[in-house]
Amino acid sequence: MKYVNLSEESRTIFRGRPGHENKQAAFLSNLKNAIDTDKLSLHYQPRFDVVTGKADILEALVRWHRPGVGLFSPEVFISDAEENGLIFGLDLWVFERCCKDLKQMQESINPDVKIAVNLSVLTCESIYFAQKIINISNKHDVSLSDFEFEITEHAHIHDVRKVISFCETLKNYGAEFCLDDFGTGQSPLVNLTLLPASTVKIDRCFIQGIGNSRCCEIIIQSLVEMVQKLDMQIVAEGIENSEQYWFIRDSGCDQLQGFLLCKPVGIDSLKSPMLRSPEINYPDY
Ligand code: C2E
Ligand code: MG
Ligand code: MG
């Protein structure tokens, strides 16, 4: 299925067009309807442990299929959902779907598998949504210790104390937290000292610089060293080629993720062999 992709530039142009506000309102109303009527779906992408080669954790990535239009990547609608308050319902919908999928995965693939769920930092600013997450996990009889929440900071944190108490509340039930897209967006270094996360995910833009930007390579190596000294885990996302793969392996990251290893797929396409890192054996490397 083809993705409908709008670059940030074309979205800005689109926003300036006459009639844009009506189209935007219709787009948001369709998105709200998709959330309310279960029309979203999830793809899962494994995160592979460097030492064992096993994918013990799968990241849930939301998709929106619009009949007659195509499959929308979250890149197209997450920011709008954040700006218009739809993100809360979306994040809860995704979490509830993950609770249902977790049982199926643990029964059919691996009893120890966990799910990484992306949460907007806006959702994480409200203790009300922490309680909602606890209620949903109880309703589906799943443990929050089978989840890691990847905090995505496209939006600005208004009150970091609220995010800390959100995280602490869910940590009491066994949940873990990861700082996603680290080094980009609105994520300042000080978050490492404030938020009770156990994992940091280096943003894809640094991985893309491997082999062509000494600056990116130095940032990756320094980040890995810093995160290790903080006794946290570090994940590299967006690995697309063998040069990036070997650089990241040599740098000491704990987990790897990217199209080279496994693309995001629907739950029914997830098979046990995909949860083992493919043997990357490039003779010319
Ligand atoms: P993210 O959490 O950083 O997820 C990684 C994105 O990179 C995903 O895009 C994934 O499909 C893509 N990706 C993975 N490996 C590669 C690779 O090797 N090369 C390239 N070029 N891309 C790769 P996707 O699914 O379009 O998601 C985009 C962003 O939307 C996510 O970035 C996350 O910030 C947000 N998102 C996705 N699902 C949710 C959700 O349920 N809730 C919230 N709040 N945000 C979500
Ligand atoms: Mg993520
Ligand atoms: Mg990311």
Please specify the SSE layout and strand pairing.
Blueprint: E1 3-4, H1 8-16, H2 20-36, E2 40-49, E3 57-66, E4 70-72, H3 74-83, H4 87-108, E5 114-120, H5 127-139, E6 147-152, H6 160-171, E7 176-182, H7 191-194, E8 199-202, H8 204-208, H9 214-229, E9 233-236, H10 242-251, E10 255-256
Parallel strand pairs: 1-4, 3-5, 5-6, 6-7, 7-8, 8-9, 9-10
Antiparallel strand pairs: 2-3, 2-10, 3-4
Helix pairs in contact: 4-5, 5-6
What topology, given as strand order, has the largest sheet? 2-3-5-6-7-8-9-10
Q: Helicity range of the residues?
A: 40-55%
Structural class: alpha/beta
User: What percentage of amino acids are in beta strands?
Assistant: 15-25%
Q: Describe the global form.
A: globular
Ligand inventory reads: ligand C2E, magnesium ion
CATH H-tier superfamily: EAL domain
Number of domains: 1
CATH class: Alpha Beta
